[in-house]
Design a protein that fits this description.
CATH superfamily of the largest domain: Nucleotide cyclase, GGDEF domain
CATH class of the largest domain: Alpha Beta
Structural class: alpha+beta
Number of strands: 19
Shape: globular
Radius of gyration: 20 Å
Number of helices: 5
Order of helices and strands: EHHEEHEEHEHEEEEEEEEEEEEE
Distance between the termini: 60 Å
Largest sheet: 8 strands, mixed
CATH architecture of the largest domain: 2-Layer Sandwich
């Protein structure tokens, strides 16, 4: 018989550079210390560590408030780790939290909440905590945590779209810099190898990046290569990469990115998706073009993709 519980799945990403730089043994020891620490935090918040899966840890809690509290503590403490550690050791943390029936058999956990927590962890961005609506409602008031509705998402393995919330844990984010919500849609264009450049312009100032300079992060954070100080823009809003002879734009924001290509009537709406950037056009950040979004102009040269 399943028991109502809250499942927390915390996963570390970015271990490849760690293994390349430190070697298998030292990198493995580093990851093991981190996953042990994640488990200790879960235990301190009243949870039970079910298992460790490579770079991830699965924990089960008796209440949504406990689970969200543990997730927030993990992200706050890990931010301090990231600030202190050398760049090669900085692995980002993604967390998914779901509430529902959990069946525990021989120390393992099964059930819809386990699967959903894993899917949310996959979709969450670096430093983010994504939760189900049941978790957000059930948690009530969690100290230093604010719940923000992200919208309705399709999750792998679920037949019906799910209402998803983000648990914002950063204490210094007042309402004046919270990302504003916009209408959410999703589309993905196919990704289609030589030198290219991309020019990005924001409020009259232009920056040019070559295919050797990527990835380029766009966002409100001062650590982004292209910092856009607008409350509608997420801290880390989008990433530009070079792949198979073309620049790709990947949305990693809370409320989406829209792309319009010059000479086309089509607008590509991205929601944690990617599209190819070619020719020139505009990128709307955080809300659609017609809603008065912050606009970023782009112009691509040297890509093997052409208009036509």
């Amino acid at each position: 018989m399943s028991t109502p519980s809250t499942v927390v799945f915390a996963d570390l990403t970015g271990s490849t550079p760690l293994f390349e730089s430190l070697g298998d043994q030292r990198a493995t020891e580093t990851v093991m210390r981190l996953t042990q620490w994640i488990g200790d935090v879960m235990l301190a918040h009243g949870g039970r560590v079910v298992k460790k899966l490579g770079d991830g840890v699965l924990g089960v809690f008796g209440s949504a408030a406990q689970g969200v509290g543990a997730a927030a503590e993990l992200q706050r403490s890990h931010l301090i780790h990231l600030q202190r550690w050398p760049a090669v050791a900085r692995m980002e943390m993604h967390v998914g939290v779901a509430t529902g029936g959990v069946l525990e058999v021989e120390g393992d956990a099964y059930g819809d909440a386990v699967n959903v927590a894993a899917r949310l962890c996959e979709r969450a961005g670096p430093g983010e905590i994504w939760t189900t609506d049941a978790t957000a409602v059930g948690a009530g008031v969690v100290p230093h945590v604010q719940f923000r509705k992200l919208g309705v998402f399709e999750l792998r393995g679920k037949s019906e779209p799910q209402v998803i919330f983000q648990a914002e844990w950063r204490d210094n984010d007042g309402p004046e810099i919270m990302t504003m919500q916009a209408a959410l849609h999703s589309a993905i264009a196919p990704l289609d190898s030589f030198f290219g450049t991309i020019q990005l312009s924001w409020r009259g100032e232009s920056l040019c990046y070559s295919s050797a300079d990527v990835p380029v992060h766009v966002g409100r954070s001062s650590s982004a290569q292209l910092c856009i100080a607008d409350p509608r823009v997420s801290r880390m809003h989008a990433r530009i990469d070079w792949h198979k002879g073309g620049f790709t734009l990947t949305d990693v924001s809370s409320f989406g990115t829209w792309v319009h290509y010059e000479g086309s009537d089509t607008v590509v709406a991205l929601r944690r998706d990617a599209c190819l950037l070619y020719g020139c056009g505009q990128i709307a950040l955080g809300m659609p073009f017609e809603a008065g979004a912050p606009l970023l102009d782009f112009r691509v040269a040297g890509s093997n993709m052409h208009l036509g």
